[in-house]
Amino acid sequence: MKIKKLAAMCARSRSIYVYQFRGFNGCLVQWVGTGFGLYKIENLPKLDKDSIFTIFDIPHDKESDYNVVIQEIRPTTICVEDADDTEQEIARLPITVNGLNAFKTSEGVTFMRGELTAPIADETIQLCARRDAAGHLYFAAKAGFMLRAVIMPYDCITEEFCTDVENLSALLQIAYDGKQARAVRSVDGAGADVYKDDETEQEEME
């Protein structure tokens, strides 16, 4: 866990949410994040506002800028356990749009803000999809079988967005067709030059 990355994320949103509860083994479990993602914090004492400001290196005169919510309960709408019956495999698509990563999911394509994986970038993470209590999809980031973060999708899919993507696809096809045509002309030209060189060499020999 990269605490500084998490702190920077909270600084941008000016919000810090903390969930604290006892795990099935009786040990303290703490999740910290923003409205866009929650991250499991380990090897720290029970957090309060003062310790959060200290760990996140937030100056005293900036503390009032933050909305800090600490709840001694499990999140009620999403699952923060290592296993969940709604879990599904997803596949990363080779496209990034305005910092949004695209994934092939059961809903077609779902986007996620790439920066939201920064706090766990030092771990080998596998992303999958889960469903909340209302049936909405969210991302679960796991290291092996252990859940490390839950991340909310970014809703950018509108009619205008789809139209923009269709227009981009058409332009890409034009560009690709042009590239292929230039490659063919280049090969044909090289062949003509070779043939011409052979004729010149034959004339010199005669």
Any idea what the shape is? elongated
* Structural class by SSE content: alpha+beta
Q: Which value, in Å, is the CA radius of gyration?
A: 27 Å
Please summarize the sheet with the most strands.
8 strands, mixed
How widely separated are the two ends? 78 Å
Strand order of the largest sheet: 4-1-2-3-11-10-9-5
Instruction: Please estimate the helix content.
Output: 25-40%
Extract low-pLDDT stretches: none
Q: What's the total helix number?
A: 3
Mean pLDDT: 90
Overview of the structural elements:
The radius of gyration is 27 Å and the shape is elongated. It has helices at residues 3-13, 49-55, 159-205, and strands at 15-22, 28-33, 37-41, 67-71, 88-89, 91-97, 100-105, 108-113, 126-131, 137-143, 146-151. The longest helix has 47 residues, at 159-205. The strands form two sheets. The protein has an eight-stranded mixed sheet with strand order 4-1-2-3-11-10-9-5. Strands 6-7-8 form a three-stranded antiparallel sheet, with no helix packed on it. It has 206 residues and is of the alpha+beta class.
Layout: helices, strands, pairs:
Blueprint: H1 3-13, E1 15-22, E2 28-33, E3 37-41, H2 49-55, E4 67-71, E5 88-89, E6 91-97, E7 100-105, E8 108-113, E9 126-131, E10 137-143, E11 146-151, H3 159-205
Parallel strand pairs: 1-4
Antiparallel strand pairs: 1-2, 2-3, 3-11, 5-9, 6-7, 7-8, 9-10, 10-11
Quick synopsis:
The chain has helices at 3-13, 49-55, 159-205; strands at residues 15-22, 28-33, 37-41, 67-71, 88-89, 91-97, 100-105, 108-113, 126-131, 137-143, 146-151. The protein has 206 residues and is of the alpha+beta class.
